[in-house]
Each structure stands twice: as structure tokens, then as C-alpha cells.
Amino acid sequence: xxxxxxxxxxxxxxxxxxxxxxxxxxxxxxxxxxxxxxxxxxxxxxxxxxxxxxxxxxxxxxxxxxxxxxxxxxxxxxxxxxxxxxxxxxxxxxxxxxxxxxxxxxxxxxxxxxxxxxxxxxxxxxxxxxxxxxxxxxxxxxxxxxxxxxxxxxxxxxxxxxxxxxxxxxxxxxxxxxxxxxxxxxxxxxxxxxxxxxxxxxxxxxxxxxxxxxxxxxxxxxxxxxxxxxxxxxxxxxxxxxxxxxxxxxxxxxxxxxxxxxxxxxxxxxxxxxxxxxxxxxxxxxxxxxxxxxxxxxxxxxxxxxxxxxxxxxxxxxxxxxxxxxxxxxxxxxxxxxxxxxxxxxxxxxxxxxxxxxxxxxxxxxxxxxxxxxxxxxxxxxxxxxxxxxxxxxxxxxxxxxxxxxxxxxxxxxxx
Length: 416
What we know:
With about 425 residues, the protein is of the alpha+beta class. The chain folds into 3 domains: about 5-80, no CATH class; about 120-325, Vaccinia Virus protein VP39 (Rossmann fold), CATH 3.40.50; about 335-410, no CATH class. The model has no long low-confidence stretch (mean pLDDT about 95). About 30% of the residues lie in helices and about 20% in strands. It has helices spanning about 60-70, 70-80, 85-95, 100-110, 115-120, 125-140, 160, 175-185, 225-235, 265-270, 280-290, 305-310, 360-370, 385-390, 395-405; strands spanning about 20, 25-30, 35-40, 45-50, 50, 150, 170-175, 190-195, 210-215, 245-250, 275-280, 295, 310-315, 325, 335-340, 345-350, 350-355, 380, 410. It is globular, with a radius of gyration of 22 Å. The chain has a 7-stranded mixed beta sheet with strand order 8-7-6-9-10-13-11, sandwiched between helices. Strands 1, 2, 3, 4 and 5 form a 5-stranded antiparallel beta sheet that branches. The chain has a 3-stranded antiparallel beta sheet with strand order 16-17-18.
């Protein structure tokens, strides 16, 4: 945890400022706190492996006790959810290796972790829409100098998009410690992870952010009215309008896998009492992205269109340049490393790579099969094209099309 985070952290219960309790066990440098205890007027919370844990669930209580007694390694075990000694040792053996991949650590976390979903996240249909919305809206309101927050952001796949949009590092907030721990190491290095509960008040100061988002998680939040109220509080600042974005939230009026507890479009609209909101059917945004853009945030979808769409995107802002058409650029330089999409089975034949689309499971195919609209079933790829991209060379038009269609994906280093 960087010490600058103290400027925006607050106790979720009393709203008081937090400070390091130096009379208790702690490990720190001049700018970072690695392990320790944070205190406010009402509570104490642990910092575990550089991540503040600002909730009072049993894992946090256990971890806090371990930190207080100078056992940070056991605090990490508690927060990652490793209760069995043999399982913990397997995980620590993999995680302690410098060359370990995201995939290997996910596998070491065990079958209960949502590894399959996250491994293929960078090309699934819900992601490509959310990525376009994030780049368009956050790119407009942040101005390169305001901070963003990704709430319920999981392993930080969309947080990674935010890293390029402003100078202050984005905050990644999630209840599940292992996910944000993975994000800091692999998916979004440079972000500031905070472990907190989305069903409670958020542990941040009013106006700390210019952009607040939640993707593919809002339908599972029970305290929806409080959640939206907290998001709008976070962007309530005097230096110009910010934005609240809810990507891919399910629609109560239609069926979808992993339905959660969604609302109707009218129900979602009623949550926004202090900020104008526009609701988009995801199908229309998906068609924009697959077609190469622009992303038409100028559209006003009819109520019948919204009622029939299984997934919705909510954008709330007073910024007059958000609800326009946004051009969708294709990046010409990788943040990580260009790789063949992991959904492809790859067979090398001489100087060519034969790619065949293979879904990891029938359930994945049922939920994300729309990726066939941009991922061909079979493709023969000149191996030198991938080699040039991996060497950092500028992509030619053919390579740009492979990147746009997610056949070749900019993946984090040591991802799989």
C-alpha cells in the first residue's frame, strides 16, 4: 500500500481517517506499507501483503490477529482462503516462484476459484463491450489527471484499461482478496488494490475519484441503492463532472446465465436520484464494437429495446462530451505481450500456425458463444506476423485486424 492512499482512504463505518498503528507489528519502507494495522476512531484493520483489508468479515478478523502477532505469512493464507496446510504449501510453492504464471497460480488456488472465467476474459463478448465503454467514458472524464476506481473489479482485467487513462493509479476494490492480489501481480500491476465489501459503505473520501465503475457484478449486489449512492458520492467533486458506469448488469425482464438479483431498466433508472443516467442495451453496443465502431453513446434506446436485452449498461454523468459517438482505436503497442487468444488450439505447420477455436467447456460456449462473431472457427496465421508483434514491431493493417478481432490478444506477461 502506497502511503499516498491515506489521502483518500476512510473507515467505512465512522468515516474517520486511517493511520498506521506503529505500536503494533508492521513492515514498511519510506513509501510503502507491506504489513501492519490501520486504525481509526472506531476500528482497526489489517494490511496484508501491501493490501488494506477494510471490512470485518471473519477472514479479516483472523488475518488481523496474525498481523498483530507478527505472522504476516499466516495472514496472507487466511485472506487467500487457504485453510488446509497441504493446500497452503502447494499454493505458496507456486506463488513464490518468479516465473509462475497467472494460470498456474489460479490452478493452485483450487477448483472453487473462478479461474476459467478470468483466463479467457480478455476476449469474451462482455469484456470487449465494457472495454470500449471504459475507454470512451473514462477517457473523457478523467482528463489524464483524475483518479478512477473499479469496484467489484475482480482480477483487474478492466482496471488494466484504466492504467493508461490518467496519471494517478486506479484503485481496484473487491471483497475477494485473492483476485486483487492476482491483479496487482499480473493483470494490472501499478493499480492500488483495496479489499472491501461492496454491500457496505465504501472506504473512500467524498470526491476522491473522477470515474467510478462496476462491471458484471452489480446484479449480485443486494444493497443496490446504497451502492449507487456511494458511487455518486465518490465522484462528487468541485473540479468538474465525473461519471458512474455500470457495465453488463442483468435485466430482470429476461433470462440470462448466473442471473443474480437484477432489476428492470426502470428499476435501475430509479436508483439514480442525483445524477442523470442513460441506459443502453448491450446488444447495440456489441454490434458497434464488432463492426469496428464508432461506439454510439449518442443513441437513446427505446424502452422496448431495453426491456428485451438480457444485459444493460448504465452511464450516469453531467459531462456533455460523454453521450456522443466515440471512435474505437486499435492499440499499436502492447501493454503486456501479444499472444494467440487462449481460446485457440494452435498447431504449427512449417511457417504457419493453424488456429482452431476450442471452448473450455459447454457452459462457457453457451454463455460466451457470441465471440464467434469476431473469432473465426479456423485460421492459418503466418508465424512471422506473431513474431514481429512480440518483438515490438509496429503492426501492419493485417496485424491490426487480428488484434481488433481478438485473434491476437494483448495479454499480461506470464499470463498463461
